Amino acid sequence: MNNIHATLSWTLNDSHLTPSIAAEIIEKSVKPNEINTK
């Protein structure tokens, strides 16, 4: 049971971290585009 709990907690952590990482990647990819269009 402990292994299952650990797996669930890791999955929850990943689901919280992934949006943050995606947001950072999107910001980095959008900023150069904004500079180029101006």
What gyration radius follows from the Cα positions, in whole Å? Answer: 17 Å
Number of helices: 1
Strand tally is 0
How large is the share of residues in beta strands? under 5%
Low-confidence segments, ≥5 residues, pLDDT <50? none
Structural class: mainly alpha
Mean pLDDT: 69
Q: Largest beta sheet, briefly?
A: none
Distance between the termini: 56 Å
Shape estimate: rod-shaped
Order of helices and strands: H
Helix content: over 70%
Task: Give a description of the structure.
It contains 1 helix and no strands. With 38 residues, the chain is an all-alpha fold. It is rod-shaped. The N and C termini lie far apart (56 Å).
What attributes characterize this protein structure?
mainly alpha, 1 helix, 0% strand, rod-shaped
Could you write a compact summary of the structure shown?
The chain is 95% helix and 0% strand.
Q: Can you lay out the helices and strands and say which pair or pack?
A:
Layout: H1 2-37
